[in-house]
Design goal:
The structure is a single chain. With 441 residues, the protein is an alpha/beta fold. The protein has 2 domains: 2-33 and 340-440, no CATH class; 49-326, TIM Barrel (Alpha-Beta Barrel). Helix content is 34%, strand content 20%. It contains 13 helices and 18 strands. It has helices at 16-38, 49-61, 80-85, 115-118, 125-136, 153-166, 183-192, 211-223, 238-251, 268-273, 300-313, 325-337, 365-374; strands at 2-3, 65-67, 72-75, 91-95, 141-145, 171-176, 196-199, 226-232, 255-259, 262-263, 295-296, 319-323, 347-348, 355-361, 379-382, 387-390, 405-415, 420-431. The strands form 3 sheets. The chain has a 9-stranded mixed beta sheet with strand order 2-3-12-9-8-7-6-5-4. Helix 2 (49-61) packs parallel to helix 11 and helix 6 (153-166) runs parallel beside helix 7 (183-192). The chain is globular, with a radius of gyration of 23 Å.
């Protein structure tokens, strides 16, 4: 078992070396939470991890596939582009414009650095794609998003056509709010080679989706085989979202991607009015993520899983995919770390793609050193800091010893001062060797 070290539990750590090593990261996380509070939104004082785990176990019992330690869960079919998205290698999403015909209070695009410019701009996404094609040699999945891409439907069709000319096997998709869907547009996108379209449905205050949007969904389904819905579930609308699942399954869509509701660091007034609070620990690891989505609203993950469980228990035919924020963040870490040469003491996690190192402290160093030597395992000792580092795959060798170890999370980042990439440590968790399960790494 891996124990997250937080402001609430750091005082319970007995090993003073581990406590000192972890303090700076606890402090950084508290500063991050204070930054969120400064935006005018509250941080929840409750953790929902146990609630999530109970629901995940029930989903597993019903036959759902639990991937990446519960970050991604699916039942029936899943889009091939979702599989490609996990590492993001050979996969790219292009913003054609940030202009939109709607103005949703929860829109994550408002968190984009170039939002003010992007609402009045059409980006040259073909050049971006061509650059990626040179970089990756082989592209797997390509998406067009916005804003609202169908404001420029002809440009979208032309882009999809060029992608398919470059490589017919590339999976193509478009994100839309669905307002502008017509028979003509869907026909042109199908002829261009579009493989998938995802509707971002926006329920009204009563949780209802307009009849017009549902009809547009049916229109898209006539032309695009993988017509999907991808949407965050509004907090407090479990009953309404269950009803929506019934409607979508009856329409016969390919599947739905269920997302946590996010707070994108802007427009906190509506969140405060609705008493939305941010998840107590919004990121598992505090890393400089570039994804503009923001941070999850508290209890949103639980409500998403409750609705998914309802759909699974009803044996719905459409694909069901719970895609957590953590799942969306993994590709950035993968790109940072996958091509890095790892030493014998470093472990490249397939769950979150951080490089991980086990750490022992003070009086435990000699015991750890002796056990590792007996088993011919590598280690490094830092005498001044009184720390020994070794591969976390070897933690179980210490299961007979009562000690607290650190588990460090590392990733490559660009250092502006050094003007080069550097390996940084971003977090330290606590591990008890007798409770350690390597599958959690």
């Amino acid at each position: 078992m891996i124990f997250k070290i937080t402001q609430e539990n750091i005082a319970d750590i007995h090993n003073q070396g581990l406590k000192k090593d972890a303090e700076k990261y606890v402090y950084q996380y508290e500063n991050f939470n204070n930054y969120i509070k400064s935006k005018g939104i509250k941080i929840s004082d409750k953790e929902y991890i146990s609630d999530e785990n109970i629901l995940i176990e029930k989903l597993k019992e019903k036959g759902a596939y639990i991937c990446h330690n519960g970050k991604s869960i699916y039942y029936n079919n899943i889009s091939p582009s979702c599989i490609d998205c996990h590492t993001g290698y050979g996969s790219a999403t292009y913003i054609i414009t940030l202009k939109c015909n709607r103005d949703c209070f929860f829109c994550t695009n408002k968190n984009q650095d170039d939002y003010a410019e992007g609402v009045n701009k059409v980006y040259d996404i073909l050049s971006q794609f061509q650059n990626h094609l040179k970089q990756y040699k082989k592209m797997k999945s390509v998406a067009v998003t916005g804003g609202e891409p169908l404001l420029y439907a002809k440009e979208c069709a032309s882009f999809i056509n060029e992608v398919k000319k470059a490589d017919e096997s590339i999976q193509t998709r478009i994100y839309t709010n669905g307002d502008l869907v017509t028979e003509e547009i869907m026909k042109s996108l199908k002829e261009a080679g579009l493989d998938e379209i995802r509707f971002g449905l926006k329920p009204d205050s009563k949780g209802k989706i307009s009849d017009n949007i549902l009809e547009n969904l049916k229109t898209a389904k006539k032309y695009i085989k993988r017509t999907m819905v991808e949407m965050p579930f509004p907090k407090g609308m479990v009953y309404e979202m269950k009803s929506l699942m019934d409607v979508l399954d009856n329409i016969g869509i390919y599947g739905i991607n269920i997302l946590e509701f996010l707070y994108p660091f802007v427009e906190s007034t509506e969140y405060a009015k609705k008493d939305y609070q941010v998840k107590k620990h919004p990121y598992n690891v505090l890393y400089p993520y570039t994804y503009a989505g923001g941070v999850p609203v508290a209890i949103s993950s639980v409500e998403c899983l409750q609705v998914m469980l309802y759909a699974v228990e009803k044996n719905m035919k459409m694909g069901l995919h719970y895609c957590s924020l953590e799942n969306k963040l993994t590709s950035q870490v993968y790109h940072a770390n996958f091509n890095v040469s790892k030493s014998e003491i470093e472990y490249f996690s397939q769950n979150d793609f951080f490089i991980k190192v086990a750490k022992g402290y003070n009086e435990d160093i000699n015991i750890i050193k002796k056990v590792l030597q007996e088993n011919k395992k590598e280690y490094i000792i830092y005498d001044e800091e009184k720390i020994i580092e070794f591969n976390p795959e070897n933690i179980s060798l210490l299961k007979d010893y009562n000690m607290e170890l650190g588990l460090a999370y590392l990733a490559v980042d660009y250092d502006n001062q050094l003007k080069s990439k550097v390996m940084r440590e971003y977090q330290i968790d606590k591990v008890i060797p007798s409770l350690f399960d390597i599958s959690e790494l």
